[in-house]
Write a structure and sequence with these properties.
Layout lengths: L13 H18 L18 H13 L3 H22 L7 H25 L6 H12 L6 H24 L11 H10 L3 H18 L4 H17 L2 H4 L3 H22 L4 H30 L7 H8 L1 H19 L3 H4 L2 H23 L6 H13 L1
Helix pairs in contact: 1-3, 1-12, 1-13, 1-14, 1-16, 2-11, 3-4, 3-5, 3-9, 3-12, 4-5, 4-8, 4-17, 5-9, 6-9, 6-12, 11-12, 13-16
């Protein structure tokens, strides 16, 4: 990929909205498994049905980690765009004042993430993204090549502790209909006070893990996103050589990931978790390329997807509320019986609803409620 100059006066890119929209819809296909038991997620059968195996393989190729990586790159792009806008803002002549506004956005994102993790869904990503964003911002002035080198180091270093955590033996067997499975679901569908206790425990775990692993991995992806933006990848897409390299590694790594994850052996499954992160990056880049080439920065192409992207923050939080209310309060019995195809069906139906909701909402309003709140809080405190 050749070096290009990113726009000095960046405008809203339809391509970015469409990519963000895909990320918002896609992340629910993974989070839905954790709306019941937010720590262990989906409980496999001792003898897995064919539909579960097929969906698991498809997920390894197209879903797992893909939208997490996609969002991290987009957050990096968002920070860079904000930074470039601040540089052209005459009202902000002081460099410290300019930087403070961007940092303030990350601080508020962290606060939103903590509130979300405690009171709604402990599988929150906002806290991790906010912390990682503060780290990534330190390197925002680097060239695209320097950003990529730094991103590689961050990602590599983060995978060492991730590997150690993955290889730790798990004494509990979390299988469908096991005593441990029933005990866990009983706790997660108990009173709200019980759920808050579990949320706080999981948040404490995340606070311990983030500085060691997620902060560096996500920051690496954010730096990669900045580099892609500086090289105009979000306008022109990938060059052919890079695209086919991504396709090659996505297929190879996803294939090995699927074989190892279905082996039934803890050691191989732990290794598959590491392969997943690399295949996710390659696949996320392919998704970016496809949307950029099809959308071509045209507001009327992929408009429904763009609408979802414009309301990403609000829809992400709403996903958590809908998923938690549905599976823990309205239909908790589903948690004992739903197979992967059931969760997939819920995700598909709700994705269609999100496309419709975003379209209807933006006919009347220009900005999502949480997007508006976030901007107002940043304006008042920076």
């Amino acid at each position: 990929m050749d070096e290009h100059r990113s726009p000095i006066n960046p405008i809203r890119l339809a391509n970015l909205d469409a990519v963000r929209g895909l990320g918002v819809l896609g992340i629910f296909f993974l989070n839905i498994y954790f709306m019941g038991n937010s720590f262990f997620g989906y409980a496999p059968h001792e003898v897995q049905p064919t539909s579960d195996i097929v969906i698991a393989i498809l997920s390894n190729f197209f879903l797992e980690g893909r939208f997490f990586s996609l969002f991290a790159m987009l957050f990096g792009v968002g920070i860079l765009i904000q930074y470039q806008r601040q540089q052209t803002n005459i009202a902000m002549t002081c460099k410290i004042q300019k930087n403070q506004r961007i940092k303030c956005r990350q601080y508020w994102l962290i606060i939103f993430g903590i509130i979300h993790a405690i009171f709604i869904f402990p599988g929150d990503i906002l806290l991790s993204y906010g912390v990682a964003g503060l780290l990534a911002f330190r390197y925002i002035t680097l060239s695209a090549d320097e950003l990529i080198r730094k991103a590689k180091w961050f990602i590599f270093l983060s995978l060492i502790p991730i590997a150690l955590i993955s290889l730790m033996p798990d004494e509990q067997v979390y299988l469908r209909d096991s005593a441990f499975f029933i005990e866990q679901l009983s706790a997660w569908t108990g009173s709200y006070t019980q759920q808050l206790t579990l949320h706080l425990n999981l948040l404490a775990y995340m606070l311990a893990v983030i500085p060691l692993t997620l902060m560096w991995f996500i920051a690496g992806l954010m730096l990669l996103g900045m580099a892609l933006y500086k090289r105009n990848i979000f306008i022109d897409g990938l060059d052919n050589k890079t695209l086919w390299q991504c396709v090659f590694w996505a297929i190879i790594l996803s294939s090995f990931d699927s074989l190892l994850s279905l082996s039934g052996k803890p050691m191989w499954q732990a290794i598959s978790d590491l392969l997943l992160w690399f295949s996710a990056i390659a696949t996320a880049l392919i998704y970016i390329h496809i949307i950029v080439k099809y959308c071509q920065n045209t507001p009327h192409r992929l408009k429904l997807l763009q609408n979802v992207g414009k309301l990403a923050f609000s829809l992400y939080i709403l996903q958590s509320i809908v998923g938690i209310v549905l599976l823990r309060y309205i239909t908790p019995d589903w948690l004992y019986s739903l197979d992967r195809i059931g969760y997939l069906s819920i995700a598909i139906i709700y994705s269609v609803l999100q496309l419709l909701m975003a379209d209807i909402y933006l006919r009347r309003f220009n900005q999502g409620p949480l997007e508006k709140l976030w901007r107002a809080l940043v304006s008042r405190t920076s």
